[in-house]
Design brief:
It is a single chain. The chain is α/β, with parallel strands linked by helices. The strands form 3 sheets. It has a 7-stranded mixed beta sheet with strand order 2-8-7-6-5-3-4, sandwiched between helices. A 4-stranded antiparallel beta sheet has the order 9-10-13-12. Helix 7 links the parallel strand 3 and strand 4. Helix 6 packs parallel to helix 7. It is globular and about 60 Å long.
């Protein structure tokens, strides 16, 4: 069976995933921004919001205790932690801000980061007075583990911050190996799993943060932060007289929160677990490969870093002077294809405004079909 035929057959196997979502005339190739929630997830959110209006927000939350406890257990499982090590916040960005604010870091502490790191993460570190230091990578931007090991022996930073899956172009970093090296040398590793959770198995960092709204296709407004047991008692947390026995990590959790979103996340996570995370990861890797194969021959476009290890995310760069901002807008406005225009602020250590480095990001989910790819390629040729 040819690769195309096999991909088409497998797309058919995943078609029920797409049918479980509201129908749309838009071709959603933007999961890396916001995934498409299922109808069941949206219904759960709406029902809890309705209950809040009927009986009061706090009463509704109390009635949902068993549901929320199950959500905590399921998400903790995906993040490789236990329920007491998990805090729910509003987003991955809020999770990192909470982590940095609570972590016992000296003034001007040093955090090692790869060149492809997410720009807003770097802004949070710098806002808290921390210094970011570059880590050695190869030509594709992949962390050089041998050089990292030497760095950790000779001149270790106070922490490492690793994007397990790079947001702007889908590069997959060897985060699990980095976490192991960090533990061996006593350097904590923080893993940004915003693009990893729901796409690939999440690396077991000393702290892991992620979001509901991307590959898990849960609601917006829900993020999560997990901290390993060895660091929980060292966190600098604000005491709560109302809840004196609260575990340290739960002190970082937002109380006034989108509880309906957490309920909806529970449905999305259960759907993901029922499908099988390994099967989903395998299919998403195939989706990324098929996408790169399809767009690689489109006139005027090239795949960004085609040799780098990547999953479902594909980014393409213009080779004929096209504007990626106008292209992304035109794809949506004229062809009903949703993508993201990635500008240098997303990875300022790797991309340069002066060199005009920008790309269009494509991030389909498991229900991608050959017809979807044909539609995309036709639209890209009309610039």
């Amino acid at each position: 069976m040819s690769a195309v035929a096999d991909g088409s057959r497998r797309a058919g196997e995943w078609s029920t995933w797409g049918r479980a979502r509201p129908r749309s005339a838009v071709l959603h190739l933007d999961t890396a921004a916001v995934g498409r929630s299922s109808t069941a997830t949206l219904t759960a959110v709406a029902q809890h919001a309705q209950l809040e209006a009927e009986v009061g927000g706090y009463v509704a939350e109390e009635r949902a205790t068993a549901t929320l406890d199950a959500v905590r257990r399921d998400v903790a499982t995906l993040l490789g932690t236990d329920p007491e090590g998990l805090a729910f916040v509003e987003s991955a960005t809020a999770a990192l801000a909470a982590l940095v604010g609570a972590w016992p870091m000296p003034p001007g502490g040093r955090v090692g980061v790869p060149a492809a790191s997410w720009g807003p993460n770097l802004e949070i570190l710098e806002h808290h007075g921390l210094r970011t230091e570059g880590l050695a990578v190869d030509d594709d931007g992949v962390l050089d583990l041998d050089q990292l090991e030497r760095r950790l022996r000779v001149d270790p930073p106070h922490a490492l911050l690793i994007d397990q899956v790079v947001a702007h172009r889908g590069l997959i970093q060897p985060a699990q190996s980095v976490a192991a090296l960090g533990r061996a040398h006593g350097v904590p590793v923080w893993v940004d799993a915003a693009q990893a959770l729901g796409q690939v198995p999440v690396a077991a960092g000393d702290a892991v943060f992620a979001t509901s709204r991307k590959w898990l296709t849960g609601p917006r407004g829900v993020g999560m932060l997990a901290v390993a047991p060895a660091y929980r008692d060292t966190l600098r947390v604000r005491p709560h007289a109302k809840l004196p026995d609260l575990p340290p990590v739960l002190h970082l959790q937002s109380g006034e929160a989108h509880v309906a979103g957490r309920v909806g996340l529970g449905v999305a996570v259960r759907e993901h677990l029922d499908l099988g995370p390994e099967r989903v990861a395998e299919r998403l890797a195939e989706v990324g490969r098929l996408t790169r194969e399809a767009v690689s021959s489109v006139r005027g476009w090239g795949v960004a870093r085609p040799g780098a290890p990547a999953g479902a995310i594909t980014s393409i760069v213009p080779t004929a002077g096209q504007s990626v901002v106008r292209t992304s807008a035109r794809l949506l406005g004229e062809h009903a294809i949703l993508t993201t225009a990635c500008l240098p602020w997303r990875a300022p250590r790797e991309l340069s405004w002066s060199r005009g480095q920008a790309m269009v990001r494509l991030s389909p989910h498991v229900d991608l079909t050959d017809a979807d790819l044909e539609r995309l390629c036709r639209a890209l040729t009309t610039w």
